Amino acid sequence: PGSLGNLSSLALLDLHMNEFTGTIPPQIGSLTQLSYLDLSSNHLSGEISSQLCDLGELLFLNVSGNELFGEVPSSGRCQNFTAMSFESNAGLCG
Fold first, then answer.
1. CA distance 87 to 26
2. How many angstroms separate the CA atoms of 33 and 72, rounded?
3. pLDDT for 17-50, tens place per residue?
4. What's the rounded Cα separation, in Å, for the pair 6 and 27?
């Protein structure tokens, strides 16, 4: 939802195993205080935005078990996460 970006103080967002479809909401990229993001085990598709990897406080990311594709951004926080954060997305590489 568009209002997600208004939660500027949100530090933890756990939405795993909710059967969500579509792309990762771009509004998540504006959650500058976010340190924990779990979107695993849904049906999310599309690419991982580099804006997501630029969240300076992000210490934990799990997008495994979705239908994501494309290259995992190699900049920002994404370079600090292990392959386990991205596994079970047949179309992801990098």
1. 21
2. 22
3. 999 999 999 999 999 999 999 999 999 999 999 9
4. 8
**What's the CA gap between 37 and 23, in Å, rounded?**
15
In angstroms and rounded to an integer, the radius of gyration of the C-alpha atoms of the chain is: 12
Q: Which residue shows structure tokens 């992801």? A: 92
Write down the number of H helices and E strands in the chain: 1, 7
Rounded-to-integer distance, Cα 2 and Cα 80, Å: 28
pTM exceeding the 0.90 threshold for the entire prediction = yes
Indicate if the pLDDT at residue 2 is higher than 80: no
The residue behind tokens 């078990």 is 65
Question: 49, 29 in Cβ contact below 8 A?
Answer: yes
